[in-house]
Design the sequence.
């Protein structure tokens, strides 16, 4: 058996992530590796932190990029904040809310599940009612942008309700960061995590996280140590902290962080609000074209994510065959349905660098040819 270099095909990524990574970010990735405690690298990490504070719209000191994917960001929020004696309300309206619930169960804390219909936003009134009856609740957790369904929940209102009931909030922003309006400080979010591979259009495998002062206070005054050594934020923070000498915690993925830095510079150059608007504009363009093809959306208009368009597979169409033709003949990836929507829906991503006119045009013309 002989082995040669792996040369991936050039795809257009319009699935649920990863999204297209720009040549600018890929070339940042290919720059020479330097030591992860090299003063030049540490200086770049400080910029990554400042750029993440901008992307999250926060002044939280504990804002950093975990060397692991979004699921690790999720786990970091839960294992650092939630202890076995705590009650956590998890709002579930798709696959990823279910993963949050699983985290609570594994910690051995008391899980209260608030289920909303898949394909709809989390029901804010139902959360208010539930918290009224659950005075022992300490945390409310929800997914801002449910990638499994394409629904956007009203994070601002859900946080207001949580605060009214003296609860802290844990928010999944894996698919929303950079693509949907998100204001961590203004909305009073206590712990939030995201992923590098969605609307930031960076390579997968990094999870930006941010913790409010209230959340940091809980981490500092825990009765027991955080059960995960790698994800213990008080240890990770001593590596990311701007003050004094950096303590070795683990070897950071140096080149991936160059790539994240570049993708955040691109976001900063464009401007956060312009990026949100671009996602919205591309979504409108796609939605108009899909309508002409007679393809229907799963999510009601007011609750739709611009960056993740979940559409019903038209009657009589072979799901796997169409996606295979798009991939093999058009080099175009769209996503299959997940969970309750497996085999029933497609997920068309317009995330970050992928959210552009050329991609929308390619997707619409390819679908037009394949669906007739
Ligand atoms: N949360 C949401 C909403 C996601 O869409 C994903 C991934 O698609 C995750 C969490 C998990 O992120 P990762 O696959 O990077 O671990």
Sequence:
């Amino acid at each position: 058996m002989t082995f040669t270099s792996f040369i991936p095909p050039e795809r257009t990524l319009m699935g649920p992530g990863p999204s297209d990574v720009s040549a600018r970010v890929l070339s940042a990735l290919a720059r020479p590796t330097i030591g992860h405690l090299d003063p030049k690298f540490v200086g770049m990490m400080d910029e990554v932190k400042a750029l993440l504070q901008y992307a999250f719209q926060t002044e939280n000191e504990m804002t950093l990029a975990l060397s692991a994917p979004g699921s690790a960001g999720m786990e970091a929020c839960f294992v650092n904040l939630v202890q076995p004696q705590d009650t956590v309300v998890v709002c579930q309206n798709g696959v990823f809310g279910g993963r949050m619930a699983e985290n609570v169960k594994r910690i051995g804390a008391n899980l209260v599940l608030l289920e909303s219909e898949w394909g709809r936003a989390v029901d804010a009134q139902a959360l208010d009612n539930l918290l009224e009856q659950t005075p022992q609740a300490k945390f409310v957790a929800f997914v801002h942008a449910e990638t499994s369904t394409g629904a956007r929940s009203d994070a601002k209102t859900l946080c207001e309700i949580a605060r009214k009931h003296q609860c802290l909030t844990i928010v999944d922003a894996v698919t929303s960061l950079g693509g949907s309006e998100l204001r961590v400080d203004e909305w009073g979010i206590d712990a939030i995590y995201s992923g590098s591979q969605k609307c930031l259009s960076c390579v997968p495998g990094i999870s930006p996280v941010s913790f409010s002062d209230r959340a940091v206070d809980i981490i500092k005054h825990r009765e027991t140590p955080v059960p995960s050594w790698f994800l213990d934020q008080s240890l990770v923070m001593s590596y990311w902290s701007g003050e004094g000498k950096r303590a070795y915690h683990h070897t950071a993925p140096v080149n991936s962080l160059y790539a994240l830095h570049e993708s955040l510079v691109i976001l900063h150059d464009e401007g956060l609000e312009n990026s949100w608007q671009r996602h919205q504009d591309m979504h409108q363009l796609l939605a108009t074209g899909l309508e002409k093809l007679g393809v229907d959306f799963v999510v009601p208009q007011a609750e739709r994510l611009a960056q993740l368009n979940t559409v019903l597979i038209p009657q009589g169409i072979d799901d796997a065959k169409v996606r295979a033709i798009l991939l093999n003949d058009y080099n175009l990836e769209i996503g299959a349905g997940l969970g309750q929507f497996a085999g029933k829906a497609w997920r068309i991503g317009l995330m970050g660098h992928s959210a552009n006119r050329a991609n929308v045009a390619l997707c619409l013309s390819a679908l037009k040819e394949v669906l007739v």
Remarks:
- The chain has a mean pLDDT of 97.
